[in-house]
Structures are given as structure tokens and as C-alpha cells.
Amino acid sequence: MELLLHCLSLALALAAAAEALSLNRLTGQSHTWLYLSLGFMLISVERLFEVLSGQVHGLGYSGHEMVSDVVMTLMSALFVYGIHGMRKVFLSHQATEDALRHELEDLHRFERLTVGRELRMKELAAENKELHHQLDSLHAGG
Length: 142
Description:
This protein is 90% helix and 0% strand. The chain has helices at 2-27, 30-52, 63-141.
């Protein structure tokens, strides 16, 4: 039982480290995720050291040690679950940001069209005024 808990905790801590590293590119916060990943790697190293050093022997496994191992395994599972949940938050944030960027591009396109239309209307109004002046001059001179 002790070896199983240590191996499960080790695997979960490695999964949390990998999940944290995978968020580097998504969030652009490489230092933050690197530090979290290193922390999870240290948990993994500690668990691996216990397994390889023979501290996990299955004999004389006290209730206190078992509770400690169960707590460590549950903590590792919660880390994996929490980081995976954070991925969903960041993906949702990114999707919202992309939608807003697209909407802003549409607004800029609309602005260019309407401003261009207004400028053309001013040009046509000025041209119309000039033609009226020319027409009035022809009528006055004729």
C-alpha cells in the first residue's frame, strides 16, 4: 500500500509539473509556470527518492505515515485538477480575447467605410457647389 501511494503521488506530481509547463505558451507567463512546475518536480524527486532509497518497505507502516502519504497523494491529485481547471480558464479568456479582437477589427473596418463615405460626400458637396457656381455664372453671363 505504501509503495502504491508513493508511486501514485509521484505520477500525479509529474503530471502536475507537465501540465504547468504546458501553460507557458498559452499564458505567456513562463516564469510563473516554470516555478510551479519545478515545485511539482521537487515533490516527484522526494517521492522517487523515498521509493529508491528503500524507505518504502511495507513493514511497520504506521497510521501516521499512511495518513501523510494519503494526504500527499490527494494534494498531488488536486494540483493536477487545479492546473487543468486553470487551463480551461485561460482558454476561455483567450477565446474571449480573440472574439473581442475580431469585433474590434470589424469596428475599424466599419469606421474606415463610414469615414471614407463621409469624405466622399464632402468632396461631392464641394464639387456640386462648384458646378452650381459655374451654372450661375453661365446663366448670369448668358
